[in-house]
Amino acid sequence: MGTYANEDPLQLSSAINKKLTNFGITKTFKEGDIILSEHSYIRSIPIVRKGSLRVMRTDDEGKEILLYYIKPGESCIMSFLGGLHDDTSKIKAVAEEESEVLLLPVDKVSLLIKEYPEWLDYIFKLYHKRFEELLEVVNAIAFKKMDERILQLLREKKKLTNSLEINITHQQLADELGTARVVVSRLLKQMETDGVVSLSRNKISLM
Fold it and tell me: Which of 8, 21, 53, 86 has its CA 20 to 30 A from that of 180?
């Protein structure tokens, strides 16, 4: 079962939520659907109502790495910045699970900033949260061993899905961590021997 938003997931006033509903379009995306592609112009800002999105960065060789997750009530600060400056997206946003997303046209972002100071405060809070998460990514790459990073990612996915069983392949896990599948498979096998995880086809269970 995925994570669901509460009655007021954005923690904003009813007036802003009403504006968001009037201005935006709500769509449901299946697991694996791409909501935002790299190098594409940003025409709308995704605000997650239910489910979750993962935000990835791809290098010139096509290798990807997970930057952060967007949870209910949250949005992608990089979309805000790119949309406001009419720039192309530097990231890819993918549905981690079936997700309900409100797509807010970029021209409405500035309008809401002018009318509602708390909307600007919401954007700053998102920026602060994402900056901290990106620092954690840098810290993990620079200082943590790969088995620690694997376990950290699995625990994060556990929180997102509220389940000890995580449906993911070794290749998908390797892609999100920016490493090779053979490395992930070897370390997962050792973690299984140590009693940390249990492995089955396309599924990893935390013990």
Answer: 53
Q: Which residues contact 127 (CB under 8 A, 6 or more apart)?
A: 77
**Single-letter amino acid code for the residue at 64:** E
Whole-number Cα distances in Å, 115 to 14, 110, 120, 172: 14, 9, 10, 43
Q: Provide the 10 A C-beta neighbour count for residue 56.
A: 19
CA atoms within 13 A on the CB side of 45: 28
DSSP-assigned letter for residue 6: -
Pairing status of strand 53-58 against strand 92-95: antiparallel
User: Per residue in 42-64, pLDDT tens?
Assistant: 999 999 999 999 999 988 777 88
Min mean pLDDT across 4-13, 79-88, 181-190, 198-207 is at: 4-13
Handedness of CA 51, 136, 151, 62 (dihedral sign): positive
Collapsing DSSP to helix, strand or coil, 57 comes out as strand
Domains of the chain: 14-142 (2.60.120.10), 145-206 (1.10.10.10)
186 backbone φψ class: left, alpha, beta (φ>0; ψ -120 to 50): alpha
User: CA 35 to CA 32: how far, in whole Å?
Assistant: 9
Q: Are 48 and 72 in contact (CB under 8 A)?
A: yes
